[in-house]
Task: structure prediction
Amino acid sequence: MKTHKEVTNLEISELFRALAASLELKNEKSNKFRIIAYERAADAVEHLSSEAKDLWDEGKLEEIPGIGKSMAESLGEVFKKGTSSHFDEILKGIPPSVFKLMQLPRVGAKTASKLVHFLSLEHSKDPISSLEKACKEGKVSSLEGFGQESQKDLLLAIDEFRRFVKRHLLPYASNLADEIISWMKEDKSVLEAYALGSLRRMASTVGDIDMAISTNEPQKVLSRFTQYPKKTRIIEKGDKTASILLPGGVQVDLMVGNPVLFGSLLQHFTGSKHHNIKLREYAIKKNMSLSEYGIKVKEGSNETTKKFATEKSFYNFLSMEFIPPELREDAGEIELAIEDKLPKLIEVADVLGDLQIHSNFDTQTSHDVGESSISEISKKALELGYEYVALTDHNPSVSNHKEKDVLNILKKRREKIEEYNYSAKNNKNNRVIFIFNSLEIDILQDGELAISDAALNLLDFALVSIHSSFRQEKKTATKRVLTALSHPKVKIFAHPTGRLLNQREGIELDWNEIFDFCVKNNKILEINADPARLDLPDFLVREGVARGVKFSLGTDSHHKDHMDNMRWGVSVARRGWLKSDDIVNCLKLEDFKKVIQQS
DNA sequence: GCCGTTTTCGGCCCGACTGTTTTCAGTCG
Result:
């Protein structure tokens, strides 16, 4: 389909936010619900599991919740022509610099509009810099509705906007949260402390860190929190919440609550926003109103508030089972919880092997070699309670080796692994780790594998992955992957999208075609537990398992200590609604052997 | 503008914090 240009989900959600802002500025009262509608649509597109443009190609735009006939039609115009007459009409009269200023934290439509008007930024090419200049010259504090404080805050907001990475990797955020929690717990008035929000839901990246603390002395706890030694500044502090900023631009928000209502507090601030909105809508139908303080129940003119010490009792009161945080995304979990039909999600302890580990065996590859030896890796695997691991060093570099050299390297490697397995087998006293002789093989540009059939035949099974030509067209890339997966020795497609969080978008593939091929041909999709990858992404895991795809978990370790990263991979699996029997390395050794032997 | 297990009309989640405005608006989650 010929289009004006590629319009990304991010651009669409920005467009929807601009539309909402525009309506808000023009006539907030009469547009109240249209504004909400555009904001919801912006949220929906931002969290979409595929490109909106692809959905449009397939005529499925209206299947996005929050996008109806009217928006779909105008959006279609945007895809076709780059602009929509209806949207343009709404945006008319609002200077684009207003929308630019709204990118600043704590600046909404009205503040932005006032600033643009008062400071004559209508035609400014860089309104943020112009605003910065005005603040520094002290011009903003004298504007109507602004003062010294707001002028100072604007300068801070500009600084934060420019300086800070917006999303943090999961282990990074998790470690920061753990540090604060243990520091807070040194104080006896802290009864319980948890990370909340996207961190508790184990999303692959985290924006702000949210926390809740159960206490009978809220003031004391909040004061301690704002005195956290590593903070760079206090953003706000009230009776129930406080926010601080850490070096690197991480904002930490704390909510405190009494133990008797801590369950509802946890629930409320764990989110997601969409989960909570759906839950409240459901509650309203039962004459209940939900908040972080509990559940208000209306009976006639009587209104009582029930309090909940635990989340479980909160959900149970709404006649549904407890919903694990990873599922709280309004993706059907509430409906299933009402019927008591949520899946029993995989746990770290269910994992019996790690299916992507790089050892220090020198395969003379052009990629990176691991740092740990086979015995170090197997010792670590024992500690983790595994039965087996797969050694998946990269294939020998193609350009530097003749076929004979490649075979020699791989034969030596096979002997070494066999020796290990043989001696382990004769070790009658202890538990031992079985080591699979595998390899992570490059998928070349045309879908051919980097090593020959003869070389492949020296392996127990092969992983394949893409390390070059990431920007192929969807059709070409899909064919490339399917060609590679077709080889009988190939069992696992590793880090399938090739994405690097905050650095590189994944390759574009026709996922339905990949899923169906995998189901039909017993191929397995990897969930790569490297925190910078977390690939396959959770939403694709969810779509894949719905079509019957099986998955593997691999840490992609290049050092034995990386094997601890398995928990992040498990979190992706849980967010993808996987049970242990959806994952091949939750199988016992003998059962897993059967999986890699089938063709 | 979207949506539907009381609805195709008439609803649309709830509350905290800050700054400036002396009673509330704006923003955020």
